What does this fold into?
Amino acid sequence: MLNKIYTALIHYPVLGRDGRIITTAVTNLDIHDIARSSRTYNIKKYYVVTHLPAQQDIVRRVLGYWTEGFGKTYNPSRSDALSIVELMPYIEDVLEEIERTEGQKPLIMFTSAKRRPNTVTFQQGREIILTTQKPVLLLFGTGWGMPKELENMCDYSLEPIRAQSEFNHLSVRAAVAIVLDRLIGESV
Amino acid sequence: MLNKIYTALIHYPVLGRDGRIITTAVTNLDIHDIARSSRTYNIKKYYVVTHLPAQQDIVRRVLGYWTEGFGKTYNPSRSDALSIVELMPYIEDVLEEIERTEGQKPLIMFTSAKRRPNTVTFQQGREIILTTQKPVLLLFGTGWGMPKELENMCDYSLEPIRAQSEFNHLSVRAAVAIVLDRLIGESV
It folds into this structure.
């Protein structure tokens, strides 16, 4: 059910450098790049999740500029991409919103650059997405990744990209692009 | 020959919005994100190609900060990623440098978001990369893409990502990540 896939970028709760829970700052290019990738792979909504009012203001200003302000006429395709972005304070709000829209809870997929037990392969993830009748939510973390409490909320946890490489430090923007491509590819 | 793959990000000559040749500005995150993706996929060098002295200064400052300055101790894996970045004024300098290092000219692959005649599929591109004895250079454009004169220098031109989607406006950072993943994937 490719028209029911959602992405979310989590700014809280995420792990800091020392493993403690932190809130990360929103980055302009995380909004743009992940919106463009999500839109290109036919994602229904891309949720930017942050509970801090000052950070929410930044997101609103970026979206306002490109979907209503000067940016809309200057670059209509950018406006189109950003039209699928929605600001949410907490992951729980995302889940409620999807359930309200779709009439059922989404399957949630966790992503991480670290090897973990009980992951599904991208091939398995792809089959789940292509065959399920449920909506699917793909979770992406910022900072040093998402904590165990978020993983425990998820139905599936995807294997890492390039896990056997001696170096795997992709940006979240690159990771989202690759995950969407591996799960959806050229399907429309 | 996976240890002989090179990437290059071209800032001149590229197309502007109106189809004329322009020089684009270097973006900090293009340096970082594409370095991290290149390093994760075991790319030998990532060339940032710009002939403008002021733009070259920006690249040098970013690289200096992260590979010699404070950034090196603050984030060693970022320093590692940026250690494969090299600044070059023109594409011709890139070709000379690769020939000098490898003892032979590279196969050059062109990339674009637009459908063009005589493209190779990603599967074909993958087979070429995995079987050739030659070094391979993957070219990525900024702005509104690379002009015909650059395509004519190339041995192969890769098909676009998501060409049949009604919307395909990936950032160059996302496009590089997906192209590397499709060509190299989990190969080491």
